[in-house]
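Translate sequence into C-alpha cells.
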Amino acid sequence: MTESGIPPLLTVSQSRVGETIVVSATGEIDINSAGQLREALEAAVPTAPRLIIDLSGVDFIGSVGLTTLLVATDTADSQQVRVVASPQVRRPIEMTGLDNVLALFDTLEDAISQPPK
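Result follows.
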C-alpha cells in the first residue's frame, strides 16, 4: 500500500540465482509505473552476466513497457537477457513482432535452466 492507502500499480524486486540477476515485476506496466522497472533494469544490467526479467506476475504491459524491455536488451550488449512472460505480456510482444528480438520463456525455471544460445 502507498501512503494514500492505494496499492501500487507495480512492484519490482531483484534477486540472484548464481551469476544470474532476476528482476521480477508484479502488477501493471504503463506510463505511470514503467519508470520503476526501468530503474531496476538500469541498475541490474551493468552487474549481470545474465539478466532475467520475470514478468510472469504482470497483468498489463503498455507500449512504454515494451520500450523499456527493448532498451534493457539493447543496453545489455553482449549480456544475455531473457524475459519470462505472462500470457498478458506475451500477446503484445508477439503482436508487435518483438518476440523476434526478445528471448521469451514461459517460466522462470525454464529461463534459468535453458543453456545459452
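Note: Residues 80 and 115 are 11 Å apart (CA to CA).
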